[in-house]
Design a protein that fits this description.
about 290 residues, mainly beta, Outer membrane phospholipase (ompla), Chain C, 12-stranded antiparallel barrel, globular
Length: about 290
């Protein structure tokens, strides 16, 4: 078992190339099915999950599992599983929501070190969702809220921050543009590096910046691209990612996803480390 996992990890790039070629470049005829997997969606009102206003418990941000990813050098093995969970709950039938997101980096193929979770980021938030209004040929809305994000660790690998934010979102037909404008709540300075109180990462905004920009576009056949960029241009630090997704055959609520990313802040643990990653897997909400 151990030798098989090591062999799988060592051939990571070849496996990714083969998977991408087979799943993205195969002729349309070879994917034909009695019911079209890429049947057109309504052209005028594309439902992006991040804008959903459902009451009770509902999905929130993208949920995915990438069974295989490859990243350049960092602490630990380069091949790992990455997954994200996200949901929200409307409170008392109002437009106030409690939401939770979690992203984990699991070195499942690093069996020599007992397949550890390298990092997990926990992100609870509370926000008010303003009603969408017609604007410039589309609809404009926004969330106003507060969030905490941390990796639940101690000592010199502890990372956390608290933020107030506003996230305007504008949708026109199949295009969605979102921005997260945030202000970090100041924290006191640590008396020593191992002090559990005080700021774990005082320079995090030098790398993460104060603005995240998102652009989504969904074609009539259900394929979607999601671009994201953030950073601090003044400090010369940034991060960008792109996700391509397409519906899986006979699966109305599951999509194949290919993701590429590069820069600082992929995770809280790596906020000051530049990481490049490519991954392939499955998306359960988008």
């Amino acid at each position: 078992m151990m030798s098989a996992c090591r062999s799988f990890a060592s051939s990571s790039r070849a496996l990714l190339a083969a998977a991408c070629a087979a799943l993205w470049l195969a002729p349309a005829a070879s994917r034909a099915a009695p019911e079209r997997a890429d049947r057109p969606e309504p052209p005028a009102s594309v439902a992006y999950q991040i804008l959903d206003e459902s009451q009770g418990l509902s999905l929130h941000d993208e949920m995915f599992i990438l069974p295989f990813t490859h990243a350049d050098t960092y602490n630990g093995a380069r091949s790992e599983i990455v997954f994200q969970l996200s949901s929200k709950q409307a409170l008392f039938g109002s437009r106030v929501y409690f939401a939770y997101r979690q992203v984990s980096f699991w070195q499942a193929y690093n069996v020599k070190d007992s397949s550890p979770f390298r990092d997990t980021n926990y992100n609870p938030e509370l926000f008010y969702r303003l009603r969408q209004r017609p604007w410039s040929g589309g609809s404009l809305g926004a969330d106003v809220g507060f969030e905490h994000e941390s990796n639940g660790q101690r000592g010199d690998i502890s990372r956390s921050w608290n933020q107030f934010y506003v996230t305007p979102a504008w949708q026109r037909d199949r295009l969605l543009l979102r921005a997260e404008l945030r202000w970090r709540v100041p924290e006191s300075e640590k008396s020593s590096p191992l002090d559990p109180r005080g700021d774990d990462n005082p320079d995090i905004t030098d790398y993460m910046g104060n603005v995240d920009l998102h652009a989504y576009y969904r074609w009539a056949n259900g394929r979607q691209v999601h671009l994201m960029a953030r950073g601090n241009l003044g400090a010369g630090h940034g991060f960008a990612s792109v996700n391509f997704s397409r519906r899986l055959p006979h699966e109305p609520n599951a999509w194949l996803v290919l993701t590429l990313s590069h820069g600082y802040g992929e995770s809280l643990l790596d906020y000051d480390r530049k990481v490049s990653r490519v991954g392939i897997g499955f998306m359960l909400s988008r």
